[in-house]
Amino acid sequence: MRPQASPSPGDALPEQCHYRDEGCHLHPSCLACPFPRCIYDEESGLRRHYKRARDQEVLHLHRQGWTAAELARRFGVSERSIYRIVRRRHE
C-alpha cells in the first residue's frame, strides 16, 4: 500500500494553518473585535459604515447651526441629500 501524501499548504485544514490576525481599520484584531458582524461579511458593509459615520457628523453639525448648503459643500453631496439625512433622523 502506498503512503498517503500530506496535504499541500493550500489544502491544509484550518487548524493546521497559521493565520495572522491583522484586524482592520476599525479594530486591530479580528478575534477580539467587539462588533457582532464583520463589516467585510456584510454586503456594502464598509460603504454603509462610512455613510453612517458621515450622517452622524452631518446631524451633529446641523444641530450646531450649519446650513444645508454648507454641509453639502463640506461632504460633497447635494443639498437634497442633506435634507434626506436630517429628515430620516426626525422620522
In short:
Helices cover 43% and strands 0% of the residues. It has 3 helices and no strands.
SSE blueprint:
Layout: H1 45-63, H2 68-75, H3 79-90
The domain tally reads 1
Strand percentage: under 5%
Distance between the termini: 72 Å
Shape: elongated
- Give start-end ranges of low-pLDDT stretches: 1-5
Number of helices: 3
Write down how many β-strands occur, each being a DSSP E stretch of 2 or more residues.
0
How big is the Rg? 23 Å
Main sheet properties: none
Q: How do the SSEs run, as a string of H and E?
A: HHH
Structural class: mainly alpha
**Secondary structure: helix percent:** 40-55%
Chain-averaged pLDDT:
82
Notes on the protein architecture:
It is a single chain. With 91 residues, the protein is mainly α. The chain has one domain. The chain has helices spanning 45-63, 68-75, 79-90. The radius of gyration is 23 Å and the shape is elongated. The chain starts with 44 loop residues before the first helix and ends with a helix. Mean pLDDT is 82; it is low at 1-5.
